[in-house]
Design brief:
By secondary structure, the protein is of the alpha+beta class. It has one domain (about 5-145). Helix content is about 20%, strand content about 15%. The strands form two sheets. Strands 1, 2, 5 and 6 form a four-stranded mixed β-sheet that branches. The protein has a two-stranded antiparallel sheet with strand order 3-4. It starts with 5 loop residues before the first helix and ends in a 10-residue tail after the last strand.
Length: about 150
């Protein structure tokens, strides 16, 4: 009989750092620039990636120093997982905070890091680095796919 996976038995608040970090599936969606409407507070995603995102692996190129290099970088916390409705519905942190399980393509479920890319969840081949976009062109890069629920659950 196999042991119940930690994410099914350990509440988010009680996870150790290793467990918490392993929840990140490496999709890169949270590393996309977002725009907020000043009047409505609606947040939309763009296909513009943070300059530190390795768009092939969909992992941060300088994870340990990300907050020094990109002060506006997201620090994923329990509150973010619970209350940031702009987090993609595919995000493992959001899924668990909402009482859902990890998706079939999550590396912890599939046992393979590439399953997130094979399932089309990651930003691989879908984004442009921020260094290649003029600030006046950001609104031209608004996309809906980061906020959409993947088809197969």
């Amino acid at each position: 009989m196999s042991e119940t996976p930690f994410w099914k038995r350990v509440p988010l608040e009680q996870m150790n750092e290793s467990q918490w970090e392993s929840l990140c599936d490496g999709c890169g969606r949270c590393c996309l620039h977002k725009l907020e409407d000043e009047d409505t507070a609606e947040v939309v995603h763009t296909d513009i990636a943070c300059r530190l995102l390795d768009t092939r692996s969909c992992r941060c190129g300088d994870y340990d120093n990300r907050f020094e290099r990109v002060p506006e970088c997201l620090n994923m916390t329990i509150n973010t997982a619970r209350y940031a409705d702009w987090l993609p519905p595919s995000c493992a942190y959001r899924r668990l905070a909402e009482g859902r399980d990890l998706a079939w393509w999550h590396p912890l479920v599939s046992g393979r890091a590439d399953s997130v890319h094979e399932a089309g969840i990651s930003v691989r081949d879908r984004v442009i680095g921020e260094q290649h976009v003029h600030p006046d062109q950001i609104e031209e890069h608004v996309v809906s796919w980061p906020g959409e629920t993947p088809e197969r659950e």
